[in-house]
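Page 42, continued from yesterday. The earlier attempt failed because a stray header line got pasted into the input along with the sequence. Redoing it now with the clean sequence only.
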Amino acid sequence: MSARYLLAVLPLLISLVGCDGYEPVDFEEQIVVEGYLEAGEELAAIRVSRTAPLNSSYDFEKLAVSGAEVKIHLLKTDGTIERTYRFAESGNRSGIYIPLTDDTVRPMRTYRLEVSVEGQRAPITSRTTVPALLELLRVSTDTLTYQGPEQLEIEIAPDASTRQRVFAFTARALDVRRENLTPLAAAVLKESDLELEDLSTGSSPLLNEANYEVSENGMIRIRLPWIAIAFYGPNRLSISAVDENYYDFRRTADIQQGGSTLAPGEIPNVLEHIQGGTGVFGSYASVVTEIYIERPDEEKP
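This time it went through. Structure tokens are written below.
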């Protein structure tokens, strides 16, 4: 997603989509599509690949699909097509499709993705309704001590017509150095095969009505979860309202990873909202601010 950090975790989750139940099944290859629209921003690239067998890891570079026909349709309220945007494969990377026309993603409008791949009987399709724009009203501070008594509060104004109010924090570190790692991030780096740059962008769990406050005039106050912060120093924070596609995919994928108390036979399948394939086609609206994360006193030199 280049500079779009909200959905940076999704390529890792896509490998879970093939786990479509718990009895052994023969592997059936599917086309994976991955694309995101941000309200008020230019159209972004679409990724097209194939699923990997369940006993192997998902590697986009190895599974990328070339030669696909990729289109996004802007729909009218009656579902008919108002405008079509065509995409062409990048000359530098297989499976990455770039829009041929620049246009701004329109909030509160519905878009339909259509991907045709040779050998597929029908196109892979999906649609998303883009959330309304957000307005950043207040940020409680620009400097904060990591896991200190004060927690960052951000107040935003969502559009009154917004139907579903689910948000996520994303923090992108602006000074990515090993010595700037928080203790938790340093432990993750030590115990995994991740690279330092892999930790530069962190995302919070989904935040719904139980995780934020709504004032009498409809303003929303959200507190930053510390789990999103991996580096001391300057961080760029995005708070994003997500569409139904991302919400359903993320919450059900989290359950597949063990994020619930459900017994294995009770765990639902991942919800994808993709017809004819698998993956994610979602949208979101964001506001951005910057904050400096200081070390606790016991860690200062």
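Notes: The helical segments are 10-14, 60-63, 183-191, 244-256.
Reminder to self: strip header lines before submitting.
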